[in-house]
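Batch manifest, entry 17 of 40.
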Amino acid sequence: MLLVSEPTLGEEEKSALAAVIDSNWVTMGDRVRDFERRFARQHGARDAVAVASCTAGLHLALAGLGIGPGDEVLVPSLSFVATANCVRYVGATPVFVDIDSIGRPLISAEDAEHRCTERTKAVIVMHYGGYLVDADTWRRFAESHRIHLIEDAAHAAGAFGAGLMGDVAAFSFYGNKNMTTAEGGMVTARDPMVLAAIRQMRGHGMTSGTRERLDARTPGYDVTMLGWNYRLDELRAAIGIVQLQNLRTWNKKRAELTRLYRDALDRECPDVMVPFSNARVSSAYHIVPAILPEGVDRDRVVGKLRDAGIQTTIHYPPIHMLSLYRSSRTHDTLPQTERFSTRELTLPLHPKMSETDVDYVARTLALGISSG
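Output type: structure tokens
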């Protein structure tokens, strides 16, 4: 099966894991701190905090910025459900915002303007597919409304400018991301005090960690704020350090594969649209979303591709149409999001693929559409 995504793991990761086991120190030690510093340096940030997941990072971002009950947070409906769930974790209300268009499926600043109220305290922008939202547009938006700007950068590890436009940004290292630690994430923040609070909150709000107390030769600590168990362990950090070294190379390969997809799809099935075709924006090229022609039976196409050994998926079912959120009164219809989600099909994309794989997917997709 040609998978939608596939991690690249090998002997270096095995050696890194073995070194952690040999050290007999498996959580919140030197490797976690080293990983944080390396990630921050590669992304142009002053520092970073490693966490258990991007979801944990978004939760901590909202908590660190003081968002809570009675507040509203603008969020894209075209995202993974965690983007909205984290708003509810802090007792605030997610308000769903449409995308710009099918060809540019990023959260719409124009639609967001209509959904701002006196209760709006933040907006979460999501870099869909690894394509970054326009930094200037969203900075102006946040400043004009005096609200916080948060980046859901789950798709954007390694993209130039990711993590630098907002007050806080959260990245993902889940198994299907451009680099992986199996589970895990990273948080960057513009204000060092906010990042320090996030660092403390990830470990139950304790004023020191186990390794710090060992080095200080004292077992004492205090708890000065509410926190959670959102720590990253040494094993995952060790994998992350290795993966990070390859991130630029892998993202370049993804960019080339995406270019090959555009050419192959234009040749084999020109009625299929790939978003961001003419966009000059920074990207990590996380996925290839293909927009099927109107009227095509997507489920039938998925089945044809699967029979041919090609996995596909959907990014995403709109959050506002999921059962948990369907009864919400914080949104109207989101026509662009709904049109996009009914026609989108995510094709395989990962560094292990070849040009031959891309051509095979494009030809098979064309056959699936013509028979559907």
